[in-house]
Structures are given as structure tokens and as C-alpha cells.
Amino acid sequence: VEYRVSPPLDEAAYSALMAAAWGVGPTETDVAARLTRHSLGYICAYRAGGLQGARLIGFVNVAWDGGVHAFLLDTTVHPSERRRGVGRELVRRAVALARERGLAWLHVDCEARHEAFYRRCGFHPTAAGLIRLTEERTED
Ligand SMILES: CC(C)(COP(=O)(O)OP(=O)(O)OC[C@H]1O[C@@H](n2cnc3c(N)ncnc32)[C@H](O)[C@@H]1OP(=O)(O)O)[C@@H](O)C(=O)NCCC(=O)NCCS
């Protein structure tokens, strides 16, 4: 597995990875433009391939506030590549990237089932909150 920091993003490969991992249909367009504008950096993991070249199998984004805080988003490993340490290596490199750029804090939130994963990646538990802004309205 090869890891690269903020490589040019193949949007079709990105969409295929997200669809396989999150079960969502074709995602947004212009992902590369969004990341260029708003990301401190992102890490891609590639499985070396034969004739077809390297295949995108993992991704994590370090979203940035422009100051000393960043937030880990979209930690993703292809289902067929899980439990081999790719996720942890992606996060390790994301932490290193934030540290190299002089940031002071890296945040993450997750579902309870991924708590142990992030704990092993070095994150300390903290109280936090989350509001879903897109919830469907059932009544007026
Ligand atoms: C969460 C996710 C990124 C983890 O990726 P991964 O590559 O499987 O992660 P790792 O292999 O580094 O670690 C996963 C587990 O496998 C275990 N593991 C690592 N290498 C292993 C090996 N060689 N053999 C067996 N188990 C191993 C780790 O101990 C870890 O266990 P833990 O979760 O109890 O800490 C992946 O499951 C995923 O993409 N999920 C769907 C998307 C998602 O929900 N992302 C989280 C967003 S907050």
C-alpha cells in the first residue's frame, strides 16, 4: 500500500471508494476543488495494481479552520482492505501532517463503534456535541 499527501484526485475513483464504503450513490462533483479550497490536506492510500495501475483504497481529509484547529473527516477504507492497518496508517499520517503544519489541535467525532479505533490512533475522549442540520421536517 502506498500513501500520498494531497495527490491530484481522480474523482471517479474517489466516488467509487465512497460508494463501496458508505453505501451512497454518486457523490458530489468537484471534490478536488472543494478540497483545494478548504482542506489542510488529505491522505490517499493506493493498492499497487497490475496493468490498471494503483487503485484508490483509502482516504482521510484534514479540514482546517485556518488557525490552529483541524478536524478529521471521511476516514474511509475500502471494505475489502479493512483490518490490515490501512485506516490507522491514514490517521497516523493525517496527524503528522497537522503537526508538521504547526497546528495545535486535531478533532474527530465518530459513532460509538469506531471509538476504540480512534482511541488506538491516539485520540483522547472528550465531551462533544453534534447537530444534524439536514434532518427532514416531519411537521410544520
Ligand atoms: C473505520 C475504518 C476507516 C477503519 O479502517 P481499517 O483499515 O479497517 O482500520 P485498521 O485496520 O487500521 O484498524 C481497524 C481494526 O482492525 C484491527 N486490525 C488492524 N490490523 C489488523 C490485522 N492485521 N489483523 C486483524 N485486525 C487488525 C485493528 O486493531 C482495529 O481494531 P479496532 O477497530 O478495535 O481498533 C473502516 O472500517 C471504514 O472505512 N469504515 C466505514 C467508513 C466509516 O464509518 N469511517 C469512520 C468515519 S468516523
Key features?
alpha+beta, globular, binds coenzyme A, 5 strands, five-stranded mixed sheet, 29% helix
Descriptive account of the structure:
With 140 residues, the protein is an alpha+beta fold. Helices cover 29% and strands 25% of the residues. It has helices spanning 11-22, 31-38, 86-100, 115-120, and strands at residues 2-5, 39-47, 55-64, 69-77, 105-107. It has a five-stranded mixed sheet with strand order 1-2-3-4-5. Helix 3 (86-100) links the parallel strand 4 and strand 5 (105-107). The chain is globular. 20% of the residues are buried. The model has no long low-confidence stretch (mean pLDDT 93). Bound molecules: coenzyme A.
Outline of this structure?
With 140 residues, the protein is of the alpha+beta class.
Average pLDDT works out at 93
Output the radius of gyration. 16 Å
The main β sheet shows up as:
5 strands, mixed
Helicity level, as a percent range?
25-40%
Broad structural category: alpha+beta
The largest sheet has its strands arranged as: 1-2-3-4-5
Unreliably modeled segments: none
Bound molecules: coenzyme A
Strand coverage percent? 25-35%
Count helical runs. Answer: 4
Gross morphology is globular
Calculate the terminal CA-CA distance, rounded to whole Å.
Answer: 51 Å
Which sequence of SSEs, written as H and E, runs from N to C?
EHHEEEHEH
Counting DSSP E segments of at least 2 residues, the number of strands comes to 5
